[in-house]
Each structure stands twice: as C-alpha cells, then as structure tokens.
Amino acid sequence: MSNTITATAGTATAAWDTKKHPAGLYVLFFTEMWERFSYYGMRALLVYYMTKHLMFTQEKSSQIYGLYTGFVYFTPFFGGMLADRFLGQRKTVILGGVLMAIGHFLMAFESLFFPALFFLILGNGAFKPNISTQVGNLYPAGDKRRDSAFSIFYMGINLGAFFSPLVCGTLGEVYGFHYGFGAAGVGMVIGLLIYLWGQKHLAADNIMKKAAAGQGAKGDAGMLVEALTKDDKSKILALVVLCLFNIVFWATYEQQGNTLALWADANTDRMIFGWEMPASWFQSFNPAMIFAFTPIITGFWARQAQRGKEPSSIAKMAIGCFLLGASFLIMIPATHSYASGQKASMGWLTACTFLLTLGELYLSPVGLSLVTKLAPVRMVSMLMGMWFLSSFFGNYLSGFIGMFWEKMSKENFFILLSVLSFAAGFAFLAVLNPLKRAIGHGKEATVDV
Residue 394 — very low, low, confident or very high, per pLDDT cuts 50/70/90? Predict the structure, then answer.
C-alpha cells in the first residue's frame, strides 16, 4: 500500500513503502552542508586566531570559545519561537543565512571581532532549528524513512565539516586568517542560494499552511497558547529530561575544537614523510569518519531491528556517552609521551576521534529525529531550539572545563572528561523505563523512545 502526501504551498511527496526520499531532503542536505562548511571552517581557526593573532591568553580564549559555541546553541530556542509564531521556518532560515554571511565577512577585520561573533550567533539561532525541522516536515507521521532521512541529513552536516578545515584551515594557517574567514563567508552564501533555488521542493511550514487557509501568522501564533494535552505534556517533559543529560555529552565532546585542538597543535607529532600536517586538519578526521561509519552503523541497526534487538533511542544515546567516555581513556597513554618530553603520536588522537565519532553517531542524529517525533507539530521548531539550548549549556560548560587544561595534569584532565561522559550514559539508562511509562510506550500513536 502506498500513501502520498502533497503540501499545498510546496511539493513534498512521500511514498511510505519505498526507500526513495523526496527531492526536498537533498535541497536541505546541500544547504546545511554549506552552512556547516562556514561554521566549522571558522571554528577550526577560532582558537588559533585568538591565541596567535589577537594574542589572547589560553584561558581567555577558552572562555570566549565556550561562550561563542554556547550561544550559537542558545539562540535557536528563540529562532524556533520566531518561526513557529511569526515568520515561518522558510523565512527564518533565509534571515539566519544572511546574518551569518555578514558575520563571517566581518571576521576579516580585527576591530570587528566581537560584532562578527554577535552576527554569527544571531544568524545561527534563526537558521539551525528551522533547517532541521524542515527535514521532519517532508515525511508523514509514522513514516519509517524519517530516521534514515536524518542520518542522510547528518551526513550533509559532516560533509561540510570535513572540507571546511581543509579549505578554511589551510587558507587561514598558510595565507592568513582573513582568507580562511572569507572562504567561510563564501560557503554560507552558496548555501543560501541553494536554499532559495530549492524552495519548490520543500514542505509547507505551519505559517504557510495557515496563510493558504486564509489565516495570517497571528492565527498561527495563537496555536501556541492552545491547551496542551496530557500526552503533549508527557512528551515535552521527556524532551526536557533528555536535554539535561545532553548537556554533559556536549560539554566533553566539544573539547575537540578546544583543548584537543591545542593538543593537536602543541603536543602531537604531525610530521608525515618530512611534511608537517596543519593542526586544523585534525578537525576533518571526525566528519570523515562520520561519512565512513554512518552506513555501517545504520546497517548494523537494521540488522538488529530484524532480530528485534535494536536499542531504543534513549539506549542508543546512553551507548553514545559510553563510547565518548572511552575515547578520552585512549588519550591517557598519550599523556605519558608528553610527560617524557616527547610529542605524542597522532595515532592516539586518531583513535580518540574514532570512538568519539561512534559516540556522536549514537546520540546526535538520534536525538534530532526523536525531537521531531515527540514535539507537538505547532511547537516543533521551538522544541528543536530547546534541544539545541542544551548544547548551549554544554558548550559553555566545555569552555569552563577547558580552563583547567593548564591547571591540571593532562592525564587527570582526560580522566575528568571520561568520568563525566560515563556519568551521562548511566543517567540516560536510569530514566529509560520511567520515560517509556510517561510517554505511554507501546501505544500505536506514541513513539518508541
């Protein structure tokens, strides 16, 4: 049997019983790819720019890094509200893209460093929650392709993240930071143009549906003040609980752009046949591995599902935390080389990134998909923003933890990261059964968490 759904203000056709995905998924894939190219290209240079060009101390740079990467995940909550109540997801994405492009180009001027970060924070807030929720809009409720769609979308994120340190990082380290930041700005413009071109392939957002029905944005805003059902409240509560534990995951995971980037630069032997690899290239390892391992992981889950042994979404997130904790344990032997006055082999950091990547694949795309399943339709962008809000606190905590990089022994620092990650994993497992009962696990209209 095949069910077909057509949006009135944008074509998004979905055949339930086929594996083919709508064209809109690939519009969103390439839009997000270029946006992430710009974000990670800038992020790959940020700590080096502050410590080597602006001459900030490591502690101050870590604080600014944590605040910046935190606030880009704080503003999506408000960007989601803006889309749900007033502008709709499409217009809010366009606004965010324009603001981010301005911010990247302002990075070319030292005196405008902080205004540039401000534009990037605001733009990301408008862009990020609304591009992700549009993926879910392409599929009807209960469509089994939704999880795989988010895995494909997540690969787009990491394709951009893979190329950006190679392009922006190389330009910044070899030719000057401003060239790297300029390349990030160009990437954002390309992504915005792709999104504008592909509008006809996207599903209508709630504001567009209300307008097509003869009601304005004000009517849509009123939807948010309607009384929530008991089922809605249970699902929102579940998301709030999961967001709390998500904070700890991102606090340790985001060290790869902060203290692990410093380790790669100062403590890692990067010589390859007489050529020294730029330190920023290490930040391409993670997205490259995501590309390599996503088909393997999703295939593994499919085989588990056939045997009835696939972990639930929350169980997968717990596994992700355990893998992240194990990744930092690998760095402990590497600190012994550092303690003896030698630089550590890049094999240690590569192995750490391998496990860190597996942990990310078990948590991040699963969490994005779960939000679109649990969130009430009229609040989906706002609650996606709430999911990213947990990343705000996680990234801010990441910067705070990074301040201990020069105050603790490197061995103890990595032990601290591992302990925090394992604690988050056990917390996810502790709430698994209570959340299943709260949501109503097993009913046809509910979601397997």
Answer: confident
